[in-house]
Amino acid sequence: MSLSCALSNEVPEQPVVSPVSGSIFEKRLVVKYIQENGTDPINGKELSEESLIEIKTPSAVKPRPPSATSIPAILKTLQDEWDAVMLHSFTLRQQLQTARQELSHALYQHDAACRVIARLTKEVTAAREALATLKPQAGIAAAPVGAQQPQYGVEAGGVADQPMEEAGMTPEVIQKLQDKATLLTTERKKRGKSVPEDLAKPEEVRQFQTLASHPGLHSASVPGILAMDVCPTDTSKILTGGNDKNAAIFNKDTEQVITILRGHTKKITSVIYHPEEDTVITASPDSMIRIWHVPTSQTVQAIRAHEGPVTGLSLHATGDYLLSTSTDEHWAFSDLRTGRVLTKVGDTATQH
């Protein structure tokens, strides 16, 4: 009587019997199976390594039967192994093709989702910018009750396409300018010709370092800051004008944006922070000069003094008058309180 393993169909070197199914196994094979599954390989019932019964057999190993050592039997065994390998390879190819199809489908879905998200983000950004552009047109009626505003003239509800007519320099305006000039001249003479003691030395300037950097004040889609001014009464407030057609007031100490001023139709190239009032002035290539009330973020005056893009602004020492230059080869002197252009002078030397 010969013993053969129920798993390998070979004569076992260390035969054991399973008390659950009564089958004979090679010990190392059935132990591995029990460690992985915990059941009997034949009937699937629970089986432990300790419950296996060893069989005592003589040390002499019986030879295989002649049918298993003949050339036809070896060829048959090789053919069976080849068939099994081919079937396994076919199954693997099938699984690989299925995985590729599922991966391609998932990639197409991911790409489509990314396109939809990008389109929706673009639409939301455009809608927000359009809404923000419309807000300044609502006027100052939405300002908080009791908010004090500068005493300017007519609000910029509607701006004419043509430049304003010159109102002329009245004797009162000329006298006001002369009085201010006399006062400033007197103060300059008092200071004398000596260099101020609090003036920074060249050695101190060489040691200047960057203390902070504040990105994100303007739109990321149209980056770029073209003009900047610091509030004279509160140096923590910084006014900037950018390529995104907006002006921003930023508090560098708290690192917070105080307000965004929207209303220009082109980029902002010049900005001025009023030294005495909570007011800022901006200019743009759209030929407009806007005076803003900071607490309400609204335009309180719009001056169209030029036919071309405004290239520069300068506030008079009185704080009531503004000098502007433009590519139309003219400079204009305007009254901030009334929004009127007092005088406008052209470069006659370049005219033919």
In short:
The chain is of the alpha+beta class. The chain has five helices and 15 strands.
Defining traits:
5 helices; alpha+beta; four-stranded antiparallel sheet; 352 residues
N-to-C order of helices and strands:
EEHEHHHHEEEEEEEEEEEE
Q: Which sheet architecture does the biggest sheet show? A: 4 strands, antiparallel
The strands making up the biggest β-sheet line up spatially as: 4-5-6-7
Q: Assign a percent range to the helix content.
A: 25-40%
Distance between the termini: 128 Å
| Helix count, DSSP H or I runs of 4 or more residues | 5
Uncertain segments: 135-160
The rough form would be described as: rod-shaped
Structural class: alpha+beta
What's the Cα radius of gyration? 45 Å
Mean pLDDT: 80
Extended strand count: 15
Report on this structure.
This protein has 352 residues and is α+β, with helices and mostly antiparallel strands. It has 5 helices and 15 strands. It has helices at 27-37, 66-69, 71-134, 171-191, 202-206; strands at 15-17, 24-26, 53-54, 225-230, 237-242, 246-251, 256-262, 270-273, 279-283, 289-293, 298-303, 310-315, 321-326, 330-335, 341-346. The strands form 4 sheets. A 4-stranded antiparallel β-sheet has the order 4-5-6-7. Strands 8-9-10-11 form a 4-stranded antiparallel β-sheet, with no helix packed on it. Strands 12-13-14-15 form a 4-stranded antiparallel β-sheet, with no helix packed on it. Strand 9 and strand 10 form a beta hairpin. The radius of gyration is 45 Å and the shape is rod-shaped. Residues 135-160 have low confidence and may be disordered.
